[in-house]
C-alpha cells in the first residue's frame, strides 16, 4: 500500500513537471527596437499607453528616449538631463516626470510635445523622495505611472 502511494506521488510529481506539448512560453520576443547612441546603463522605464510610447531613462547619456511602440523607433529624445534615474508618466496631468540623481531635480515635460513644464529640487534623492505638487495633486516620479 505504501509502495503504491509512493509510486503514485512520484508519477504525479513527474507529470506535473513534464513539459506540455501545447504549452505557450510565458514571454515571447516580438521585436527588438534599437536605442541609438546610448552610453552606460539604462535605468527605469515608464509607459504612455494612450500614445503607445515607452519612456526609457538613459542614465549614462543624460537622456530619456520616447520609443514609439507601433513604429518601433525612437520618436523623441529629451536631452540635458543629469543622470536620469526615475521616469514616469502621469496620465491625468499628461506630463512626463524625470528624477535626476546628480542634481536632485525632478523635471516635468508636456507629454504631447515634450516641452519643459516645470522643475523642482528634491530635499534628498530623487529616487526616494521626488514628491512634488503639480496641478493640485501629489505626484511621485517613481509611481507616476500608477497615479491618476
* Helix/sheet category: mainly beta
Low-confidence region ranges:
1-13, 124-148
Using the coordinates above, name the CATH class.
Mainly Beta
Rg (CA only): 22 Å
Explain what the structure shows.
The structure is a single chain. This protein has helices at 2-17, 126-129, and strands at residues 42-48, 53-58, 63-68, 73-78, 84-90, 95-100, 105-110, 116-121, 131-134, 137-140. It is mainly beta and 148 residues long. It has a single domain, classed as TolB, C-terminal domain (Neuraminidase, 6 Propeller), CATH 2.120.10.30. A hairpin with a 5-residue loop joins strand 7 (105-110) and strand 8 (116-121). It is globular and about 55 Å long. The N and C termini lie far apart (60 Å).
Amino acid at each position: 500500500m505504501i509502495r503504491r502511494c509512493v509510486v503514485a506521488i512520484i508519477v504525479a510529481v513527474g507529470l506535473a513537471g513534464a513539459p506540455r506539448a501545447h504549452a505557450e512560453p510565458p514571454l515571447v520576443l516580438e521585436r527588438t527596437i534599437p536605442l541609438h547612441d546610448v552610453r552606460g546603463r539604462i535605468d527605469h522605464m515608464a509607459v504612455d499607453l494612450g500614445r503607445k510610447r515607452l519612456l526609457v531613462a538613459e542614465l549614462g547619456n543624460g537622456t530619456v528616449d520616447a520609443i514609439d511602440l507601433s513604429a518601433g523607433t525612437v520618436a523623441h529624445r529629451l536631452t540635458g538631463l543629469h543622470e536620469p534615474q526615475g521616469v514616469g508618466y502621469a496620465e491625468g496631468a499628461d506630463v512626463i516626470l524625470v528624477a535626476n540623481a546628480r542634481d536632485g531635480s525632478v523635471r516635468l515635460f508636456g507629454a504631447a510635445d515634450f516641452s519643459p513644464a516645470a522643475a523642482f529640487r528634491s530635499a534628498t534623492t530623487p529616487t526616494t523622495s521626488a514628491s512634488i505638487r503639480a496641478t493640485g495633486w501629489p505626484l511621485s516620479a517613481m509611481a507616476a505611472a500608477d497615479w491618476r
